[in-house]
Design a protein that fits this description.
Arc Repressor Mutant, subunit A; WH-like_DNA-bd_sf; 2 domains; DNA-binding; 6 helices; about 10% strand
């Protein structure tokens, strides 16, 4: 069952990824960690962090006069929830059409195909 958390926008997800990597950071530290190809204003980063906190994805504490943000939800959890929502909305809850789309339209390298075979074999054996 999906939690009551709202899904993340692209910008929120970008900021959450940075915070996951930093483990704990101020708005200024997250802003400084932005890649050059994704420039955001300081106030936009601050807004995203506040939204992430309001949605329950991060928590913050006041250290002196500075607010420090920390992830509350692990990346793996967000990935699972996001993919589950996608499968439900686009594919009626059926994962095979998503897998078919990824394999046929996105393509897989020989190494990825071998890894997929190994995962399927392990699943079959369990």
């Amino acid at each position: 069952m999906a939690p009551d958390r709202s899904p993340l926008s692209r910008g929120e997800l970008d900021v959450a990824r940075l915070l996951w990597g930093l483990k704990s950071a101020t708005v200024r530290e997250v802003h400084a960690a932005l890649p050059d190809d994704r420039p955001l204003d300081f106030s936009t980063v601050q807004t995203y962090l506040r939204r992430l906190e309001a949605k329950g994805y991060v928590t913050s504490v006041l250290e002196g006069r500075t607010r420090v943000y920390r992830p509350r939800i692990r990346p793996k959890t967000v990935i699972r929830e996001t993919v589950d929502d996608l499968v439900e909305r686009l594919f009626g809850g059926e994962p095979l059409p998503l897998m078919r789309h990824l394999i046929e339209d996105r393509g897989l390298s020989d190494e990825e195909i071998a890894e997929l075979r190994q995962l399927l074999n392990e699943r079959e054996d369990s």
